């Protein structure tokens, strides 16, 4: 989506919304695969795990992220069970707080963190450090020192400087650092497409094609304080099929085999990263963890057999696919207006009490979302609507196109599914709007797991 100084997206003549967006027979009806397991409508009111959104809004206010805890846990288990012989690292960058870290620990997964702050949350949750992996293209000496001091299970190296920092820190602390090396396989994947290039113009990892990866392996093997566990590759996000993983796996395993042949070292592990897609709208058809596992495990087995090497211990790092679908954001409608478009069409703008400060993805990536009227049933005909935020920014769009009942008014509650990943974790205080609360619901019980920020919290930073 192109943002335009004068306005986010000038309506196209006779705009009826994107081709994939069908006019629903009943705009009240939920599309099951867009919502978490525990969500349904009771007399038109959205309900999750036995709690109605009317009660949730009354108790916790809006905007609020509502997490279906059992759904989150089931999705975590789903990956663990689909990849029984692998280590599944939940990518905390998608959404992390003490409660979520504990759910992940409970369900037997490992945790991938990519900053000192995420590591601090994990430690506050008493997450076993040996099951934590530390990522990041620019880890500070302080972050590396903390990771070594608490004994994280692995550090994924991303630069030559980091090898030197770890050499010095392990010597100083008298410890051995278990490490992986992040390599770039020349693959960029997204939904059904993947781009296969010989090299990659991006900040992460060591290039296989350029020889940097093999050079990094040699450097790490020469350091007595570093224990090289294996190679790591992450090829993209919102991936629906395994094609890109196949190319990446082949290229990384080819390097793995070369290391074994030329350097005489059989690396025990291999990580294929995350990136598993979810359904945000009716146009999305992501694969299940089982389907992905079947495809990826076969790829790894076949490639290793073809190269005559032992199959290394696999790990993966799903984030979005565990956190994303488990959560919806609950908003209250503040204002509505209908705007005439060229060619006689019109668009209904529905403004809610949140926006890009709680979900930056539409503005940042042009991401699509869906939406439903959550506080009542309506028999008004569906009209093409755009749900927008309260921020002074024309790109402040929450849901670009959705058919909502034409009688949505201020005071109604709207719910946007699929906001469990990269929403709260990317939240901001734009326009000094406090960040929204996060509520977990389970068995008819709702509890606050991240409290709403207050203006006093914001002012506490302001030294005048
Ligand atoms: C190294 C790495 N692993 C895992 C992930 C998680 O990706 P996703 O949430 O799409 O599964 C990311 C996301 O950027 C990543 O950079």
Quick rundown:
This protein has helices at 53-60, 69-82, 98-106, 116-124, 141-150, 160-173, 212-221, 243-263, 289-307, 320-323, 361-365, 455-460; strands spanning 39-42, 45-48, 51-52, 64-68, 87-91, 110-113, 132-134, 154-157, 177-184, 187-191, 193-196, 206-207, 226-232, 236-239, 269-271, 313-316, 327-340, 346-352, 372-373, 382-388, 397-405, 413-417, 437-442, 445-450. By secondary structure, the protein is α/β, with parallel strands linked by helices.
Characterization of the model:
This protein has helices spanning 53-60, 69-82, 98-106, 116-124, 141-150, 160-173, 212-221, 243-263, 289-307, 320-323, 361-365, 455-460; strands at 39-42, 45-48, 51-52, 64-68, 87-91, 110-113, 132-134, 154-157, 177-184, 187-191, 193-196, 206-207, 226-232, 236-239, 269-271, 313-316, 327-340, 346-352, 372-373, 382-388, 397-405, 413-417, 437-442, 445-450. It is of the alpha/beta class and 464 residues long. The chain has two domains: 7-67 and 325-460, Lyase, Ornithine Decarboxylase, Chain A, domain 1; 70-321, Alpha-Beta Barrel (TIM Barrel). The longest helix has 21 residues, at 243-263. Pyridoxal-5'-phosphate binds at residues 91, 93-94, 112, 135, 234, 237, 273-276, 317-321, 421.
List keywords for this structure.
9-stranded mixed β-sheet; Lyase, Ornithine Decarboxylase, Chain A, domain 1; 12 helices; 8-stranded parallel barrel; TIM Barrel; 464 residues; binds pyridoxal-5'-phosphate; 2 domains; alpha/beta
């Amino acid at each position: 989506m192109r943002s335009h100084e004068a306005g986010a997206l000038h309506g196209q003549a006779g705009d009826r919304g994107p081709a994939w967006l069908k006019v629903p027979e009943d705009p009240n009806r939920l599309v099951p695969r867009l919502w978490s397991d525990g969500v349904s409508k009771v007399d038109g009111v959205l309900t999750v795990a036995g709690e109605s959104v009317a009660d949730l809004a009354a108790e916790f206010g809006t905007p609020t992220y509502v997490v279906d805890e059992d759904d989150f846990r089931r999705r975590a288990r789903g990956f663990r069970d689909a990849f029984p012989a692998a280590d599944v690292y939940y990518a905390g960058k998608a959404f992390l707080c003490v409660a979520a870290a504990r759910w992940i620990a409970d369900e037997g997964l490992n945790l991938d963190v990519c900053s000192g702050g995420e590591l601090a949350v994990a430690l506050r949750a008493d997450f076993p450090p040996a099951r934590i992996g530390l990522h990041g293209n620019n880890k500070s000496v302080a972050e590396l020192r903390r990771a070594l001091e608490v004994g994280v299970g692995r550090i994924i190296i991303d630069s030559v400087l980091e090898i030197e920092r770890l050499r010095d820190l392990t010597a100083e602390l008298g410890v051995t650092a278990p490490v992986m090396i992040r390599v770039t396989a020349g693959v960029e994947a997204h939904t059904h497409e993947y781009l296969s290039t010989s090299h990659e113009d991006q900040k992460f990892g060591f290039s296989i094609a350029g020889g940097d990866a093999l050079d990094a392996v040699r450097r790490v093997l020469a350091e007595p304080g570093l224990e090289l566990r294996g190679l790591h590759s992450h090829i993209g996000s919102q991936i629906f099929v395994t094609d890109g993983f196949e190319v990446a796996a082949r290229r990384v395993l080819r390097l793995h085999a070369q290391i074994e042949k030329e350097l005489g070292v059989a690396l025990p592990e291999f990580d294929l990263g995350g990136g598993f897609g979810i359904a945000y709208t009716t146009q999305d058809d992501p694969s299940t963890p089982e389907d992905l596992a079947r495809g990826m495990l076969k790829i790894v087995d076949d490639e290793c057999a073809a190269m005559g090497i032992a199959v290394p211990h696999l790990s993966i790092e799903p984030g979005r696919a565990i956190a994303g679908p488990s959560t919806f954001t609950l908003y209250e409608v503040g204002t509505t207006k209908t705007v005439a478009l060229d060619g006689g069409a019109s668009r209904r703008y529905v403004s809610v009490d949140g926006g890009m400060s709680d979900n930056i993805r539409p503005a940042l990536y042009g991401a699509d979302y869906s939406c439903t009227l959550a506080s009542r049933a309506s028999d008004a005909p569906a009209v093409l609507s755009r749900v927008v935020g309260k921020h002074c920014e024309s790109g402040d769009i929450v849901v670009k196109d959705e058919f909502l009942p034409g009688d949505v008014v201020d005071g109604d509650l709207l719910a946007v599914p699929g906001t469990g990943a990269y929403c709260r974790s990317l939240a901001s205080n734009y326009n000094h709007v406090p960040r929204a609360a996060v509520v977990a619901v389970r068995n008819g019980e709702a509890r606050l797991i991240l409290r709403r920020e207050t203006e006093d919290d914001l002012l506490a930073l302001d030294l005048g």
